Amino acid sequence: MRMFKLKRDERGAAAIEMAISLPVLVFFIYGIFESALLLWASAGMQHAIGEGARLATIFPTPSATAVSDQVTATLFGTYDAKSGYPTVSVVKNTLGSSKWYTITVTYKRDVTFLFLASREITLTQSKRVYIAQ
Questions:
Q1: How confident is the model over 117-124, as a mean pLDDT?
Q2: Where along the chain do its domains lie?
């Protein structure tokens, strides 16, 4: 008789369901937040490379240092990068009569996913910009 009463008794069922589902929900929300930070950094890198590319295409051609300074000045979303990052590289290349800059931005960050071990994430974006002659 007592067993039948326990089967019909639903008191505490909501608390048990919440105890099971809440950690999963927190895990997913934290994952979305971490992913958003990486996407924000990627957008900032792409924006900065675009600004550097815009500067590199003007005449007279600016120096690689000036393009690098422009990229660094317009970079956003990378405040939580590892020490020494983000790195900006601007290299002038020549092949025959063609001249171009290769602009590269590299960003590294340790992503700690709650109680799991941290992993290093590296984002690299690059753009080739042909120089006006």
A1: 92
A2: 2-130
